[in-house]
Amino acid sequence: MARPTFDLQSHSTYSDGSLAPAAVVGAAARAGVELLALSDHDTVDGVAEALEAAKAGDLRVVPATELSTIDGDHEDLHIVGYGIDHTDSTFLVELTRFRDDRAARSERMADALEACGLALDRVPLEARRAAGLPIGRPHLAQAAFDHPDNAQRIAEEGLADFGELLEAYLISGAPAYRRRTTPTVAEAIAAIHAAGGVAIWAHPFWDVEHPDEVVAIIDRFVALGLDGVEAFYVTHTREQTLIAARACAERGLLSTGSADFHGPDHPRFNAFRAFDLFGCTPELGPIARA
What we know:
It contains twelve helices and seven strands. By secondary structure, the protein is of the alpha/beta class. It is globular, with a radius of gyration of 18 Å.
């Protein structure tokens, strides 16, 4: 079965990816991606570099950003804005506000990891902060996983890599997880629309398990202005994909997809186009024309 030629999430060193934006574009081109989105968390700082790098290849880059949002009991749902004006001054101010909240949350989680008895290698964290780069949960998990004082405990807990440490300590319900305070889903959608973009709920089954709840949330978000859902995703099962794609088709929503590339050495998100359409037809709408 032919794999899709678009991949609408990727991350660079401007958030929690391991490659610079130009290198992300190069890797995508070599993997056969024709339509790529650089979707760094709460920032568009790498978009200009990605757009410039794309001029030398046969792929197009869509300006994008992935916003972490809060929604009632759901503490970290992701809304991606595609086709945004990455130079819009009002949008840039909003992103700064969102990043400030993310930074404060990261500090709270770093303190919580230490309160759990894990040592942190603060040197790389401080280096990122000094460079004006964000510190996310993968960076915190890596700083704990790499510290030699944690080696015995990590072995005893059977944590094979920093990704497993992140899931053990830094996801909702885990002991070192701390909640963001802004933006809400409605705020994220409004900011994306004001910047000329479309708003997509990313990887719904990553955050919500029950199909009925996913569909109910889609309906609620549509009332807030949501334009579509990332139905096709690297960790979605066939059943999950069909449920999300059908919900989009029935509601006239966009349906996007991605392998969520974070770098070639990432334990999970390490390859472009590594997601399946399961016989469905995506609806990219204005994203494909951006």
